[in-house]
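Tutorial handout. Part one gives the primary structure; part two gives the three-dimensional structure as tokens.
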Amino acid sequence: MPWRTSRSAPVRLRTPGRLAGFLKTASICVLIAGLLSPLTQATAAAATSNDYCGGQCSDILPPGENGNATLAQVLLNQAFGTQPDHAEDQLGPYANLAKGYSSLTDSTINTFFNDSSFGVSSDQVASTEKPAGRSDVTIVRDKKAGIPHITGTTRYGTEFGAGYAAAEDRLWLMDVFRHVGRGQLTSFAGGAPSNQGLEQEFYRNAPYSEADLQAQIDNAVATNGARGQQALADANAYLAGINAYIDASDSGRYFPGEYVLTGHKDSITNAGTIDHFKITDLVALGSVIGSLFGAGGGGEVNNAISLLAAQSKYGVTEGTKVWESFRERNDPEAVLTVHNGESFPYATKPDTAQGEALPDAGSVTTEPLVYDATGTGASQSATAASRTATATALSSARRGMSNALVVSGKYTASGHPIAVFGPQTGYFAPQLLMLQEIQGPGLSARGASFAGLSMYVELGRGQDYSWSATTSGQDIIDTYAVELCQDDYHYLYHGTCTAMDKVEQTNSWKPTTADGTAAGSYTMRVWKTKYGPVEYRATVGGKKVAYTTLRSSYMHEADSIIGFQMLNDPDYVKGPQDFQSAAQHINYTFNWFYADSQHTAYYNSGNNPVRASGVDAEFPVWGQAAYEWKNWDPTTNTADYTPASAHPNSIDQDYYISWNNKQAKDYTTAPWGDGSVHRGNLLEDRVKKLVAAGGVTRTKLVQAMADAALEDLRAEDVLPKLLKVINSSTVTDSTAADAVSKLQAWVTAGAKRTETSAGSKKYADADAIRILDAWWPLLVKAEFQPGLGSDLYTAFTNNLPVDESPSAAHGPTGSHAGSSFQYGWWSYVDKDIRVVLGESVQGPLAEEYCGGGSLSSCRDILISTLKTAAGMSASTVYPGDSLCSAGDQWCADSIVQRTLGGIKHYNISWQNRPTFQQVVEYTSHR
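Part two.
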């Protein structure tokens, strides 16, 4: 087959507006009729495998398995709302749990989930195929969800089938993200501001050349012996399967319709090509996923700015004390995943900091990324998108997401462990993840993998065990101050004036049917040093410096493949210790959880660098040999890493919970906010109560997760204390009294953001929810800004956003994204208000803020801001957007499957839960 030369598609297809006129043409029905072709399906018996779950393993991944759509299917969806088969059939069950969990039973779990048993019963086989006519692999798809069940008789055939199935289900999405990983999205998919922002966000931190991508593959293979060689062989077979599908769909003209809509293929002549995938594409894809979910750290410059502001406000000693109290590095009230008191010190505060390179006040400027912008590349919306991308890339408040609830068999009704867990990866159409079962020599697993990286199941189950992950966020990124010499593009490295390396990517775009953004262009330029890319410029003690960021997983995006290979190998994972050993081979920052019929386990992964003595990971340090990671080699970006035993880990703890909270005592994570109130408390409180009662079942654990998923964290854990202050004396103002009454009634009813009835699209306690949404930012500012002063208050809000309610578009996750209440000032408010109330507080803030610590003054502040909030209309609190009209509270919260292709889906009621989720309880073990 000839190698293809094509381009790829957008992360934002603006199909509704552009296609409206197109769909009105008289030729539309003829075009659709010509593009539609009958699909032939055969039936076959299901493959059999060793399955020890006894029918008690389930999973779900909305909106649906089928993420590919032909041009005809895209046009029909846009014109009439019709859905391709299996594009949306998991969305309804997923959404329905929000109102259905209260009446859940073990026998009805699979009303809301898929049965994730191995194989497909003969009466449930929808289709069987031999990809590319191969005799050594079969892909069976089930009737219910269209999930590919891949069974191979050879290792090569099995992986070929995995690649073929991935392309069948996610080809367009895979093409999009290989371009994102290379910083080439706009020229490939269109210049929509969201596309500009996305490619800029990733290119700033991972400006890889083709040689860089290949070097990472070579290194992963060379350093991992037989497993490295096997990974390379698996990847090549997987790529061959992808490319075989590209050729077949091209010649058969059933490739994704987005290629036509973005101008890469012609719908009439079939002119144009779709590039074959190559092995470096997998590294580009991996760099995007790793940056999104597995790269904890950064933010040292912002930390330095807020420390200087605190010291300016209070003086050095007291200012440092205030800063540390807000930072909450190791807050004694923080909810922990390993809660048995075991300590795992990491990134702790040194007694005497060494090598700190704090900027001179007011000297910091962000390093530009975009140059020579023209047309829509220089527009106001483009500038705004670039600004947001920069803030996201440089912040320590990364998308965390994902949760886990795992209970030891000692506390379950059956005596077997139970787990409800999964990654909270956002909501997209098609979904970033895809489901599959893969059975072949050395491979036996079912679950979810990121599209284009599905040679192995990354989160799922084996024959007698399941595993999952949450983002952990420990600090593997450090900021170095390199002293400039000669000019702004040379720096001192070990005493020698050394030139920075200039890396550039020039993109241009023009309007297409999918994206009507007018023509534009720009060049992204990154200056790289041995200490990583330049992110800021400043002066330190009057000397000009560049601040760079160095990530331990930089140039090592491919290394984690070995850990996933192990997790899929039934001959490797036979118990919790083997699971932990496999997870140790994953260099991204994740919390990993495990359950089989006898044991549970936990391990925190990531290459945690061993820092030089006295280095404080919170702040920039000088780019000098004395302050480098121990045994750091800049050529390979390798160093000494903390041993596995120093990572938080555990086997058979009574229970584990994780919702991106603190892992263990003395283990400092990079994001701020691990204090007395964290969304992890929503799980901790519920699971701890279940374990105390005993007799935990799958139903009870799902209900605990689903109940927490509807909870407003502020209302459950902070609002009662705010009301206690207000009610410390009689509320005489009628407006305030009415608001207090509504808020109290909501708390009494459970403090949930839930519909009055399924499908009503109206919240119960709607007024109380509106009042709290309006009140929270007002009360936080009124409580803290007078004491902190505007400069320090602003600096602290740059470290940690004030709020992240479901409708808050300003949070790290954005609006309509489901994940909520990860980042906010709830712990600060909680601690400060408890001091005002005279209650005991461990790890209090260094100062008293609400009313200066006076109960009556604090009460006045709360009542004043509450009255203002109560008077704010719904249309002010929920101003509306492209999807929702102003004042539509339910819609403002609702979850949207963000289009990454041409197929749209309906929005669903808010839930704060994993996107892919498993419910497992194994009955036996090998």
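Part three, for discussion. The chain has a mean pLDDT of 93. The two ends are 44 Å apart (CA to CA).
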